[in-house]
User: Fold these one by one.
Assistant:
Number 1:
Amino acid sequence: KMSYDNNNIFAKILRGEIPCNKIYEDVFVLSFYDINPQKKIHALIIPKGKYVDLDDFNSNATSEEIVGLIKGITTVAKKLGISVNDGKGYRTLSNIGDYGGQEVPHLHFHLFGGEKLGKMV
Ligand code: AMP
């Protein structure tokens, strides 16, 4: 199993040691605004469990945790008013590892929206 750094910034947010601008929380996930927004709306969603990245999560999380996180993305999008149901849309992505550009070693999905995003590459 991959080693998880208990002192990463999102672990501290989950423990309530540092604040976040919370959007949504349930038994499986916490969602909050990114501190350095790259688009008009830039949210993050993280699992409550200790998973370094998406591969660690898919290898080691329970099915309930996996469903909870994936469904949580839509819950958050609806809450933010950026879901397709609201006639808009958004982008979600997860950076994985060194080449993926991941900086915080606790799995997170970004949600970008609130404006037309254009092509990513
Ligand atoms: P990544 O490069 O995918 O690991 O993204 C990490 C994201 O976490 C970046 O977009 C940061 O702006 C964001 N971030 C770092 N620290 C905080 C924090 N304390 N609260 C909210 N977002 C943060």
Number 2:
Amino acid sequence: MAKLIGGLGSSHVPSIGAALDKGLSQNADWKPFFDGTVAGQDWVKAHKPDVAVVVFNDHGNAFFLDKVPTFAVGCAERYEPIDEGWGPRAIPAFEGHAAFGWHLADSLVENRFDPMIVQEIEVDHGMQVPMELFFGRPETAWPVKVVPLFVNVIQYPIPLPARCYELGHALRKAIESFPGDERFVVIGTGGLSHQLQGARAGFINPEADREFLVDIAANPAKLAALTRQDYVRLYGSEGAEMMMWLVMRGAMDEAVRVHHTHYHVPASMTGAAMMVLENVAG
Ligand code: DHB
Ligand code: FE
């Protein structure tokens, strides 16, 4: 059976991708952030996953407000990186894992989740940036197949944090019931705290971010028990996307070891983080 070998967490701030495109990763502003991502890349190189389930939200690029699924599973063989308005980026398309996508959708339904099924979609910075932070920029092909798992954190009503955590439990069941011996990672993306609009635009909460990074490993039930309003209050209206890390955490065992954690503030208007979790039981 397939195996989950790690839970990864990453911000997906678009300016991180822009910094890489412009070759700015080693300048004084960006170096402290990118230095903290090397350990995540080293872990991935050492552990060689075959498949990455990437939990993220589309940002009005592929789904617009006219149609927003609460949860959606990618069942495509290929995902093109979307042009978000600055022109095409020099990153390869992502190879999908349609067989696992269909298995995941079916397994979620068996476990009382009913996702939208997506056979054709382009993917935005929500997936592009975390993939590059963990896997670097490949010349021709990414070293893993990807399965996008979309969560609506944009158009209210967004799901409960507790529901995201439970979705992670169901994702774990799907991985462990998939035939074969592929090695999976789950990447939870987004955050950390940020608010891009309204009266609190520019709001960042580094203290709450640092507490989140401790709790997501040691006490995820606490984060799952918070309300959606708590997420907006603590982490900002866009920081509410941090609840997607709970999908990743819910897929892991209760007992995890923190292999790596990194926090840098700010990247653009956001507290930026990376994390690598391993199951204590291996
Ligand atoms: C920013 C952060 C995000 O997570 C996002 O989706 C868009 C923008 C930012 O800080 O600029
Ligand atoms: Fe975002």
